[in-house]
Design a protein that fits this description.
The protein is globular and about 65 Å long. The longest helix is centred in the first third of the chain and has 34 residues. Helices cover 67% and strands 0% of the residues. The model has no long low-confidence stretch (mean pLDDT 84). By secondary structure, it is an all-alpha fold.
Length: 415
């Protein structure tokens, strides 16, 4: 008889993330669960907030859900579930079969959470708009097919050019919203996504079979993100830049390092395209929501990853002395580079709005340079002062975001 060894539980580690231990995690889970379902009891109020007096544009809502599926797919392709504690790998007889089981379980947990987010968003918006039976079926089919496609691609090793898939899906959502397609067309799109998922489901090595080096690297990245959250340093949340060979062989200057920090994080370009589609379709789907905060938050989310190089230099005095550049030179040169990126993202968003045939008021476009300034302010934050507490610590952690919020409010009033 063949017996399977039961998975070892690490002493002191809470099961199920502490949700069932009766502590504050349980309270937060119950509170969040209740708040999510309470929203269904306030549908008229939410309708006035999102749609105002306008008729619900369900093709735009369909397009929004397609773009959300693209964002879901791109986030799962990061494969942040591939990690293991070095101590567990070394001391706890963490055999290959155990590694596979843990990695697969973690992937499905993350996948389930993202499915619930996308599915809940689609269900809530459909309920607010009073969607018919056909709308509910189309929403469900689209969410299910997008989830299957994300799962079968994330569970295997990376395919060359796979990050272009979410961009194509986001552009499909843009086309659905622009063309005013109905539930039948959305169901056809869902069927096409399922066929693609079946086609790519075979072949490739599963991510659950990665070696010790990949697992430890994933653990180090996760530990860095956890420390960033504890010490309230948002720039540490941005992964390190990848090498740019043709730039690294030349004498380092401020401008070359600025472009190296951008090009080394060019993998975030696909996210920026999806965010632009999400902002444009969201503006069309929810006409009562002010456009200025939507554009500002979208631009900030698209640009912040590319100021990671400036953030690394700013929090490392030794590197700044090695470079020999003053603070104003770093701000100026990196500001010009990020301004070019912001201009490119603004042009992309303009093309999205033209495709959707929406014309935001001109003050709304000032949200893009506002986001550029906010991103630079975030990257050049001085070291945290832990002598203060409460509101003072929160203000330090929100450096850059504070300007974004105040500026968005002013642009909303002006618009």
């Amino acid at each position: 008889m063949v017996s399977t060894k039961a998975p070892t539980h690490v002493p002191g580690r809470q099961r199920f993330g502490g949700l069932l231990n009766g502590d504050y995690q349980t309270f937060l889970a119950l509170f969040g669960f209740g708040a999510l379902f309470t929203a269904f009891e306030n549908l008229p109020k939410l309708r006035s907030i999102l749609f105002g007096l306008s008729v619900v544009d369900f093709p735009a809502v369909f397009g929004l859900l397609v773009v959300l599926c693209a964002m879901f797919w791109r986030s799962l392709l990061r494969r942040g579930f591939v990690w293991a504690e070095p101590a567990a790998l070394t001391w706890m007889d963490f055999a290959s079969v155990d590694r596979r089981r843990v990695v697969v379980k973690r992937m499905w947990t993350l996948w389930l959470g993202l499915v619930l987010v996308v599915g809940y968003t689609g269900a809530l918006v459909t309920a607010i708009g009073g969607g018919s039976k056909d709308v509910w079926i189309a929403m469900s089919a689209l969410t299910a097919s997008g989830a299957v496609l994300a799962a079968v691609t994330a569970r295997r090793t990376a395919i060359r050019g796979e990050t272009a898939g979410p961009i194509v899906l986001a552009l499909a959502g843009l086309a659905v919203a622009a063309a005013g397609l109905g539930p039948i067309a959305v169901e056809v799109l869902a069927g096409a996504l399922f066929v693609v998922a079946v086609a790519v489901a075979f072949g490739g090595e599963p991510m659950s079979g990665v070696g010790r080096l990949e697992l430890v690297d994933g653990w180090n990245a996760r530990l860095l993100r956890a420390m960033a959250a504890v010490f309230m340093d948002p720039m540490l949340l941005i992964p390190e830049s990848r090498p740019v060979p043709w730039l690294s062989l030349r004498r380092p200057t401020t401008l070359r390092l600025a472009w190296a920090g951008v090009l080394g994080r060019r993998r975030y370009a696909s996210v920026s395209v999806v965010v632009a589609c999400l902002v444009g379709v969201g503006h069309l789907a929810f006409p009562a929501v002010p456009a200025a905060p939507l554009f500002a938050v979208g631009a900030y989310a698209a640009l912040v990853p590319f100021v990671g190089g400036l953030g690394e230099l700013w929090r490392n005095p030794g590197r700044r002395r090695w470079l020999g550049a003053s603070d104003w030179e770093l701000r100026l040169v990196n500001g010009l580079v990020v301004a070019v990126l912001g201009l490119g993202w603004g042009v992309l968003l303009g093309l999205v709005t033209l495709t959707l045939r929406v014309t935001p008021a001109w003050p709304v476009w000032l949200a893009v340079p506002l986001a550029v300034f906010a991103a630079l302010r975030t990257a050049t934050r001085p070291p945290m002062n832990y002598d203060v507490s409460g509101g003072g610590a929160a203000l330090q952690a929100m450096r850059g975001v504070d300007v974004l919020l105040v500026g968005s409010l002013l642009l909303s009033v002006t618009g």
